[in-house]
Amino acid sequence: MMKPPTRFTLEDQIMECWGVVDDLDMVYSNEDLYHDEDRMMNVLLGMQELYRLRFERLFQTFEHLIHEGKIT
């Protein structure tokens, strides 16, 4: 059973989403990907889906906390 989200859950999820910057830097610095367009596209599409899920979860937490009156 999942615990209800708190302000700290929201903060953790915000920090996770900032990981996109580090992840893009990792892709940018991996020169092997420059030579394989299909592999590069797969990496970028995977990142796109992962961060779409992370941002959706973040927004759901935000909405829940507003609905519960824990943040205004």
Distance between the termini: 27 Å
**Oligomerization category of the chains in this entry:** single chain
Q: Which structural class do the helices and strands define? A: mainly alpha
Q: Indicate the mean pLDDT.
A: 94
Order of helices and strands: HH
| Low-confidence blocks of residues | none
Q: Compute the gyration radius: what is it?
A: 16 Å
Number of strands: 0
Range of strand content: under 5%
Please tag this protein with its features.
mainly alpha, 0% strand, 72 residues
Architecture blueprint of SSEs:
Elements: H1 7-29, H2 37-67
Helix pairs in contact: 1-2
Q: Could you explain how this protein is built, in words?
A:
This protein has two helices and no strands. The protein is an all-alpha fold. The protein has one domain. α1 runs antiparallel to α2.
In short:
This protein has helices spanning 7-29, 37-67. With 72 residues, it is mainly α. Helix 1 packs antiparallel against helix 2.
